[in-house]
Amino acid sequence: MYSFSYHRPASVAEASDLIANAADGKLVAGGQTLLPTMKHRLASPSDVIDLGAIAELGGIVVNGNIVTIGAMTSHAEVAASGEVQEAIPALAALAGNIGDPAVRNRGTIGGSIANNDPAADYPAAIIALGATVRTNRREIAGEDFFTGMFETALEEDEIIVAVDFPRPEAAAYMKFENPASRYAMVGVFVARTGGGARAAVTGATDCAHRAYRMEEALAKDFSPTALADFEAPVDRMNADIHASAEYRAHLVRVMAQRAVAACA
Length: 264
Known about the structure:
Blueprint: E1 5-7, H1 12-21, E2 25-28, H2 34-39, E3 47-50, E4 60-63, E5 66-70, H3 75-80, H4 82-87, H5 89-95, H6 101-106, H7 109-115, H8 122-128, E6 132-135, E7 139-141, H9 142-145, E8 146-148, E9 151-152, E10 160-166, E11 170-177, E12 184-193, E13 196-202, E14 209-210, H10 212-220, H11 245-263
Parallel strand pairs: 1-3, 2-3
Antiparallel strand pairs: 4-5, 5-10, 6-7, 6-10, 8-9, 11-12, 12-13, 13-14
């Protein structure tokens, strides 16, 4: 690593001041991406601001039909939460299948969505459930938050505080995972809500996205057969050593049908 200044603020306000005044500061939550990047000397921030001591960024609260998860809540905490399991079991199941135990106990929901890896799981849930990302400055609709590969609507010195998830009538997430990393080669989150069917896809393209055509088909018939003829656009699919664009397009339909079936 290159040399840097390390800070461990006790409040969001203190962290905000530190990142605003740093020459090239970086916020660190679980450190699952930033620290390996720094170790390989692919990043050299002047200051690292550790959010781990900020109590206000943790915790899970259910208020009516809204499940609020603090930004520094780990994947393991989301998976083990009785409140999440009761209100949105699909979200608890998603969190319990992220990476391995070490990743789940260190990684956080805020860190994951701020990084916006194109194969991450949480973005699909946030978009499909119509969640709201709250920062120290504003509220951002989930479907507007993810803007591109490793890019979000966040400003450089903006800090995620929490994510608000509306409780759906039913929801499910299905992914075809890389056997080594357990990242989603393709993941589809489907929700049945009071406003109709919602669906989002991750892993297939360079950024998680809302699947409007899938939703249109499910609005007419919320069943796996409604997606029998659904075709994801091959020209938008990722292609790598793990799967071709054509295979990923096929997996989008298969994972979507499985998610719809699981909603039953």
